[in-house]
Amino acid sequence: MKIKLVTNANEGLRNELSDIVRAFNPYMDLDPESEEYISVFFADSLGRIQLSSSFEKEVTIDFSVDHLSESQVKKEYKRYSKSGLYRYISNHLNVKLPYGSLTGIRPTKMYYDLQLEEKNPLSTLCNFFDVSEEKANLIERVVRTQSDVYGKETNRFDSFINIPFCPTRCSYCSFICDVVDRVKGKLEKYVESLILDIKEEKKIMKGLPRSIYVGGGTPTSIPLKLLEEILTAIDAKGQEFTVEAGRADTLNSDVLALMKEKKVTRISVNPQTFKDSTLQLIGRKGDSASVLSAYALSRNYGFDINMDLISGLPQESFDDFKRSIDMAIDLSPENITVHSLSLKRGSILTQSGYTNDDLECVLKQNQYAVSSLLKAGYSPYYMYRQKNTVGRLENVGYAKAGKVCVYNVDNMEETHTIYASGAGAISKRVEGNLITRLAEAKDISLYSSRIEEYIQRKKEFFS
Q1: Any idea of the CA torsion for 294, 296, 297, 300, to the nearest 10 degrees?
Q2: Would you list the DSSP string of 110-153?
Q3: Which residues lie below 8 Å from residue 267, measured CB to CB, with a gap of 6+?
């Protein structure tokens, strides 16, 4: 069903209301040219919202705004309009979504907000926002697991370094990332610029990072000499130090020994799936046997290891996904992260016309992940949601006791300042409830050619 959204909301709230409609895809989606419409109208009288459409009778929502500040009134209008619109559509379609009227990347943020408002978060998530009991419990578990890390040492900061290169481009990927063999002539210049960025950034840091995270891409896909130069420039001092080494075909004894020497404490060995035909379909080199071999080799170096898996992959049944989860649990890494497939506009999968509308299967896959990982002694410790997933489902990181990744919590919950270096990297300054960001160029050549400018901008940003 195609509809257009008509509202007198401001642009920010209009976008959030639009997200409510999009969340019902494939049952309903936005089309500004459609003759069918749905209207969300904010009446002149305070505390009143009117919902109407070309297919349902009008509904009026009244709520109290007495004794509320201007910012609190805005918050209530946002919550009631989104909740009202969700229920209006849900009743018409007879479809319930796992996260109800919650939009945005961070479900835990609402939980923390409700705590500050002295409301019962679990009850409010279920009864006001229409979050399913299952998902509300998952959010609460995440908050509980991250409690030893969340908001601690906020006088300190984290460091992120981006190495945006991979051996191949996965068909679902929309990250800022270049295939390493296609940009060989640009690698040395990029690394030279990145090292300058890292060194100049250290001059403005006040103390040592709480955690260090080298992401991508696949940082271990670049030549060993260049990786060594970057890790040497970082010069870790015993902090949590993660390097995304997710592609098994980039891991060998030389790479692992280098990371151990440079005090890396945590790496990724990411299968995504243990079904070989799916690996070929999504454009990943190698097979599940190579993942198992890389994992076994990595175990010899004493790293904490994370493994990524993805639900909703093309041509994967529930049993296929179940097998991948079971195999990952049997391997017993310190962290397992379960992603829901997100069909980003820039990905090969999306551009090829692939869609996955089987919400029932993906829900079943995610439910199995939660139940089996909890049973195996893992706890969910951070989560986020992306717009283009079936049913707007979640990505969740699970950890063994005492193995929570500090950087993942700090970054996702936006509790700590982050100094970021590299193409596409985004520094983040957190001052109480105020968060400001500074982005560096996404294109590696542009980043390299303008590095002095970005260094100066960063100095000013953190001054």
Answers
A1: 150
A2: HHHHHHHTT--HHHHHHHTS---HHHHHHHHHHHHHGGGTTTTT
A3: 242, 243, 244, 245, 259, 298, 303, 304, 305, 306
How far is 342 from 156, CA to CA, in rounded Å? 33
Report the 10 Å Cβ neighbour count for 259.
26
Q: What is the mean pLDDT of each run of 10 residues along the chain (463 residues)?
A: 96 96 91 96 88 96 91 94 98 95 96 96 98 98 98 96 93 86 96 98 96 96 98 97 95 98 97 95 89 97 97 94 98 97 83 80 95 98 90 94 98 97 97 95 96 97 96
What is the rounded CA–CA span in Å between residue 436 and residue 37? Answer: 37
Question: What does R_g of the chain's alpha carbons equal in angstroms?
Answer: 23
CA distance 318 to 230: 41
CB neighbourhood size of 12 (10 A): 10
Provide the residue type at 337 as one letter.
T
Q: State the burial class of residue 87 (Cβ atoms within 10 Å of its Cβ: 0-12, 13-18, 19+).
A: middle
Quickly tell me which residue has 């990744």 as its tokens: 405
The pTM of the full predicted model, rounded to 2 decimals, is 0.95
